[in-house]
Specification:
This protein has 386 residues and is of the alpha/beta class. α4 packs across α11. It is built from twelve helices and 18 strands.
Length: 386
């Protein structure tokens, strides 16, 4: 089959690789009909999350079941499914508590410690050997383990584009807002108007926010946020966003700040030198912005990815302000049925952020325009076999 393969930082290509096979009797094989490039994939491409050997990438995918193991109960060949990005067994302690990204059984590198090169939580599709080494979905076919638990059947009247983002970015944005436990009437500020940031903005309205503000450094992304999420927006490069947020909230600051950027925000030369000196990856500049922008007693939700410890973490400020921090991978399996119903009933539209649809064979080009923000690229869908 054809698949997008990571070789080393900055190098991906579409190669012919072995077809996946049933390995355990609760596996299924899915013929991928749509897959997407995620901002998290760029962390691998850029070397922020290490991978030392070739790997099929991609964790946002859906398709049609081609083969099932003997123990599959409620799925069959020909069913169309969407597949959450965390690989979870469905019956360990953490799965039983809705914490599927922390599954104890899916990742051979699992352990309680955590950290960049230490023990990890549950496995993820196409996300390095640290996270289980499972081939991803930017391919013509993919093996899905524990398939009695995670995949969800999709009605034929729903297009791929309407439901594909249930795999990751909508549940991720939803998690960020749900963790903040809105009561209604809050001001929610989302740093980052990429795909996850815009999904968080949509989720904030659905959860009862009275004011939703998107922050970014690129005008075209701010334009898309205004059009698709109906948010107020500010460009960080030409606005004192902290002062603007305080001006809009009687001097207090936002009730909730969401970091939807993560460690690959813009870095100064000093920050790059500091990274080398402290053996850390990327920057926490967005967390610092959140710490200033959030009100006392407010909530910071971090769904942007961070890969290491950081020397200059603003804990004193966070402590003084009594801020709650929630963070982690999205609880996709916990939320997906509720979110699918929102899509079915047209209470949320997800496909309005798609800017590019390309054949899988053009995946290296797609990565390039997504990484470098060319051609006003916000979200790329790849179509295998076309």
């Amino acid at each position: 089959m054809r698949a997008l393969v990571f070789h080393h930082p900055k190098k991906v290509s579409v190669d012919t690789v072995a077809d996946p096979k049933i390995e355990k009797q609760d596996d299924i094989i899915v013929r991928v009909t749509s897959t997407a490039i995620c901002g998290s994939d760029l962390h691998i491409l850029n070397g922020f999350v290490p991978q030392t050997k070739p790997m099929v990438m991609g964790h946002e995918f859906m398709g049609v079941i081609e083969e099932t193991g003997k123990d599959i109960k409620n799925l069959k060949k020909g069913d169309r499914v969407v597949v959450p990005f965390p690989i979870a067994c469905g019956h360990c302690f953490f799965c039983d508590h809705g914490l599927t990204p922390h599954c104890e059984n899916s990742n051979p590198n699992y352990g309680p410690e955590g950290g960049m090169l230490k023990e990890k939580g549950g496995a993820l599709f196409g996300y390095t050997d640290l996270y289980g080494g499972y081939p991803g979905g930017q391919a013509e076919y993919v093996r899905v383990p524990y398939a009695n638990f995670s995949p969800r059947k999709i009605d034929p009247e729903l297009s791929d584009e309407e439901v594909l983002f249930l795999t990751d970015i909508f549940p991720t944005g939803w998690s960020a807002v749900d963790w903040a436990q809105l009561k209604g009437g809050e001001t929610v500020v989302v740093f980052g108007c990429g795909p996850v940031g815009i999904m968080a903005q949509k989720a904030a309205w659905l959860k009862g926010a009275a004011r939703v503000i998107g922050i970014d450094v690129l005008d075209y992304r701010l334009d898309i946020a205004r059009k698709t999420a109906k948010s107020e927006t500010f460009n960080l490069n030409n606005t004192n966003v902290i002062q603007e947020i305080r001006n809009l909230t009687k001097g207090r600051g936002a009730d909730v700040c969401v970091d939807a950027v993560g460690m690959e925000a813009h870095r100064s030369t000093w920050e790059k030198l500091s990274d080398v000196m402290h053996a850390q990856a990327g920057t926490i500049s967005v967390i610092k912005l959140c710490a200033s922008a959030v009100r006392r007693g407010g909530v910071i939700s971090v769904v942007g990815v961070y890969g290491s410890s950081y020397n200059d973490f603003p804990f004193g400020q966070i402590f003084d302000k009594g801020v709650t921090i929630k963070t982690g991978q999205a609880l996709v399996q916990h939320y997906i049925d509720e979110l699918l119903e929102l899509v079915k009933t047209k209470k949320v539209i997800l496909n309005d952020i798609i800017t590019h649809t390309l054949p899988l064979e053009q995946a290296p080009h797609a990565y390039d325009i997504f990484l470098k923000k060319k051609d006003n690229c916000l979200k790329v869908i790849l179509k295998p076999g076309k």
